[in-house]
Amino acid sequence: MENNDQLIERFEKWLLICGKAESTRINYRVAVTQFSKFLVNKPLTAATKEDVRAFIFSLYGRGLAATTMQARRDALQTLFDCLQLGGQVRESVPRYILRRKLPTRLPHAKSEEEIERLIAATRNSRDRAIIELGYASGLRVSELRSLNVEDVNLEARSLFVRRGKGDKDRLGLFGHKAAAALKDYLGDRKRGPLFLAQRYIQQGGVSKDRYGTWRGWWRERSGDGKLKMRSVRLGDYDLPTKERAREALRHFLDCEQIARAERSPQRMVIRSI
Question: How many CB atoms lie within 10 A of CB 179?
Answer without folding.
Answer: 21
